[in-house]
Structures are given as C-alpha cells and as structure tokens.
Design brief:
rod-shaped, 77% helix, 0% strand, mainly alpha
Length: 92
C-alpha cells in the first residue's frame, strides 16, 4: 500500500491525482537534470581529446562548441551522436 492510499483512504481522489501528477513532474525534472549533468561531464571529457582523437570518432572541435550552446531541454549526447554519424558518412 503506497503512502497516498494509506493516508487518503480514497476520501480525496482529486487530491490524490494532483499529488501523483506532482510526483511524476518532480521525477521527470530530476531525470532531466541528471541527464544534463551526464551530458556536461561527457562534453568535458571530449574537450580533453585532441583533434585527431575527435576525428577518429567522427567529430570536430566545432561540433563540441555547437552542442555546448544547445538549450537545456535538448539532449546534447544525442546531437553529438547524430553529428558523428553524419561526419562518418561523409568520410567513408
């Protein structure tokens, strides 16, 4: 039995729904924040690579700067993957 059911006992179904919605939004915000933190860490690691190493994975330094300026809601890791696949396609 979860905490909402134990305390509400079904007396406040609308309040229970609001509480669940609020919890879901908080959970989503925390997941997004954790994802953004991982993206920032990955970008820092990539910035430490030299240009030859970046070229090996299909990126150029400009890609890193481009992705670092994306809005917070954008997934920087996914964008880097897209850029890497585009570059590898042209280099084949």
């Amino acid at each position: 039995m979860n905490i909402v059911n134990r305390h509400a006992h079904g007396f406040f179904p609308a309040l229970e729904e609001v509480f669940r919605h609020l919890c879901a939004r908080v959970e989503k915000a925390m997941r997004n924040r954790a994802r953004r933190y991982r993206d920032i860490q990955a970008l820092r690691d990539l910035h430490e690579l030299n240009d030859a190493q970046l070229r090996d994975i299909g990126l150029i330094r400009g890609d890193l700067y481009q992705v670092s300026r994306l809005p917070v809601k954008e997934n920087a890791t996914a964008e880097l993957g897209r850029l890497s696949r585009r570059t590898k396609h042209f280099n084949v």
